[in-house]
Amino acid sequence: MSSQDQKIMFVFPGQGSQYVGMGGDLIQDFPVAQRLYQQANEIVGYDLLKLCLEGPEDDLKLTRHTQPALLTHSLVCLAVFRELTDDRVKPILAAGHSLGEYCALVAAGALDFETALRLVQKRGECMGTYGEGEMLAFPLHLDNVKHLAEKHFCAIAACNLPDQTVVGGRGEDLDRLTEDAHGHFPKKRPTRLKTEGAFHTFYMIAAALHFRPVLDAAAMAEPTVRVLSNYSGVAHDPDPAAIKTRLFFQLFHPVNWIGNLETAFHNELTAIVEFGGGLGSGPVPADKRPNLESMIKKAQRGSDYSIHYHAAINSQTLRETAQVLR
Question: Residue 275 phi/psi, 5° resolution?
C-alpha cells in the first residue's frame, strides 16, 4: 500500500527520551541534520549539538537543556524523513507527548523551527526555575489512584494508558502516597521519575505564568494538519489564539495521552510514525528503542484497531521506515 492510500499520524516523544549521543548518526549521514543542528546552536546561544553528543548526562537532563535538545532531534528526524521520501508521506494527524506537542505543531506548519525552539527553551527554563516536586508512575487506573494522590497533596500529571497514571508532588508527599498505595494495591509498585518538578500539575502554575508572555508573542499559523491537544485529548481548534491557551493550560494540567490515542484511533489510522528520542542502555543511537511505541501498542490491545507502527528515531530506522512508506 502506498503512502497516498494510507491514513498516517506523526507522533513525537516527550522529556525522558533524551540520551547522550543523540543525533550523532544523523549529522554523520545527512547534511540536513548538520544544517539544522548548526541553526539550533545559533538560536539557543550555546553548543547544543556538543551537549547532545558528549553530555555530561546530568547537564542534558536539566529541563532547560532537555527540551531544546529533544525538540531539535525530533525535528531533525522529521526533516531527514521528508528528504528520504521526497516529502510525499503526508499525515492526517500529528500529536506529541508533553514537549512533543510543540514538534507536532511544527510538523503541521503552525510553528516554524526557530519559533518552536525558542518557545521550548523558555518553557524548559521556566519549568526548571519555578517548578518543584517529583513524579511517580503508577500501573493503575486513574480512578484507583486519584483519590489517594489528593489525600497527600499530590495531583495527576498524565494519563498515559488506562492502567498507567503519573502523579506529581513533593518528594515527601510522594513517599507517603507510595506507602498508602501499597496498602491498597500491594502488587502494583510505582516507579519514581527523577524530574526537576511535578510537571503538568499545580506545581507548574508559576512556570506557566512566566511562560505566558513568550507564548503570547510567538508567531503561529493555523495548522495544515490536525494536531491533538494534550490538554483536551482531542484536536486543537485551528485558531492560533486557541492553540496557545491549550499550550498554557497543558503546563499545569494532566497530559491526556490516552485521550489523544483514542481520538487518533477513531480516525481509522493505518500507520503511526514516531520521530526522535530513544530509550535503552545501549551506547549508540542504533541501540535505542522508541519512547511511545509500547504505549501505542498497548492501547490497541483488545480493540478492533490494527495500526502499523514505524520508528524514525535514528539513521537506521529512518531509512527503513522511509523505504516502507515512500
Answer: -115, 125
Residues contacting residue 177 through CB under 8 Å, at least 6 positions apart: 136, 148, 149, 151, 152, 154, 167, 169
* Residue the block writes with cell 527520551: 17
Helix, strand, or coil (residue 137): strand
User: Is residue 98 annotated as a catalytic residue, yes or no?
Assistant: yes
Name the DSSP class of 81: H
Residue pLDDT, tens place only, 143-168: 999 999 999 999 999 999 999 999 99
- Look at the block and give the residue holding cell 494508558: 161
Q: Which three cell numbers stand for residue 146?
A: 486519584
- Is 152 catalytic? The answer is no
Domains, the chain, in order of start with CATH, read 3-129+201-325 (3.40.366.10), 134-193 (3.30.70.250)
Q: 98, 152, 229, 310: which is the annotated catalytic residue?
A: 98
- Work out the angle at residue 143's Cα, subtended by the Cα atoms of residues 142 and 149, and round it to the nearest 5 degrees: 70
Name the DSSP class of 48.
Answer: H
Q: CB–CB of 22/13 below 8 Å?
A: no
Amino acid at 56: P
The residues, any chain, with a CB within 8 Å of residue 143's CB and separated by 6 or more, are none
Task: Considering the candidates 200, 236, 253, 310, report the single residue annotated as catalytic.
Answer: 200
Could you say which DSSP state residue 83 is in? H
pLDDT digits (tens, 9 = 90+) for 184-218: 999 999 999 978 999 999 999 999 999 999 999 99
Terminal Cα-to-Cα distance of the chain (whole angstroms): 10
Beta-sheet strands, E only, within the chain: 8-12, 93-96, 134-138, 155-161, 164-169, 191-193, 226-227, 271-275, 308-312
Chain Cα centroid distance, residue 87: 23
What CA–CA distance (Å, rounded) separates 272 from 215?
29
* Paired strand residues for 311: 274
Tell me the C-alpha distance between 77 and 81, whole Å.
6
| Single pTM value for the model | 0.97
What's the residue count for the chain? 326
Between CA 154 and CA 207 the distance in angstroms is 18
